[in-house]
Amino acid sequence: MRLLAVALAAVLMVPTGAASASADGTARTDGPVPASLDAGVGVPTGTMAAAASAAATVCAKVAAKAGFSYTANVSTSAGNVRQIVVAVAVAMAESSCNPSATGQNPGSIDRGLWQINNYWHPEVSDACAYQVQCNANAAWNISNHGSNWTPWSTYNNGAWRNYLNTARDAITGFSFQLKSRGAGTCLDAISSDVRNGGRIAQWPCNSSDSYQQWRVVVGANNYNPVLQNVGTGTCLDAISSDIRNGGAITQWACNTTGDPYQRWWFSGSGQLNTNGDANAGLHNVGTGTCLDADASTAGQNGNIFQWACSGSDHFQLWN
């Protein structure tokens, strides 16, 4: 990561002449509103490539919770590419996925992972732009929920294509916690009940607890990923015979190829929360229901179940 920082210091702090706002701040009106103005960073090799792979994972984690799709494709100069892959590749081209990256332009700066320009996007504060999840949510908004990448100069000039393989590798295999906004507890696979049908519960959040870490695993075809618990090795499963409000959510042996009841997708909130909260809904592909922390049992060993999806229900929003 230090090598990336050195490269960024050399590349991103050099003023460019590609600005769409003049030095005195007068806006141009002859084109689409840009997200960033900088020409982007160079292609890493050798040791830098290894650092780039680790950095891309930073972007992939927040891109998933921001709502960039694993199944919807973007029609690009490189063919049809998954939204989330495009998102990570663009961020790598823009900033090497360095949260502190700053690109200098006449009259403005580009900031953070997706290099959000402060002149064209004043709704994105510096506190948001330099916070990884908030920056990702801003990129989701600016890209029309992942469907339009023309506001980014590195997409238009093709530089993002240099990072396609890195981005494809980055979108699977990473892990994170899932914290309920409403309950303040984390999603936990009960270690004493590791089996098909084993209990999933709420638990006080502990970042060092492997039973609260969920690995995003992409399987065959263009499917949404499964969520595999790092501690148990089992996957988060919505029971297909119990599709209802209050229906069971359990552990089950992982099936990355054929079980839609183990596949999940995030619905992005687009909220620009400087505390890093994504507030994303987590939808099950097979049932169409959402992951819900039971408000009436919020706390240690509280219930987790299916519920009809509602973007206004804080117990269905996950960070």
Structure described in brief:
The protein is of the alpha+beta class and 319 residues long.
Main traits of this protein?
alpha+beta; Lysozyme; Trefoil (Acidic Fibroblast Growth Factor, subunit A); 3-stranded antiparallel beta sheet; globular
CATH class division of the largest domain: Mainly Alpha
Tally of separate domains: 2
CATH level 3 topology of the largest domain: Lysozyme
Sheet bearing the most strands, described? 3 strands, antiparallel
Strand order of the largest sheet: 3-4-5
Written account of the structure:
The protein is α+β, with helices and mostly antiparallel strands and 319 residues long. Helix content is 22%, strand content 20%. The strands form seven sheets. A three-stranded antiparallel β-sheet has the order 3-4-5. β9 and β10 form a beta hairpin. α2 crosses α5 (132-142) and α3 crosses α7. The longest helix has 20 residues, at 47-66.
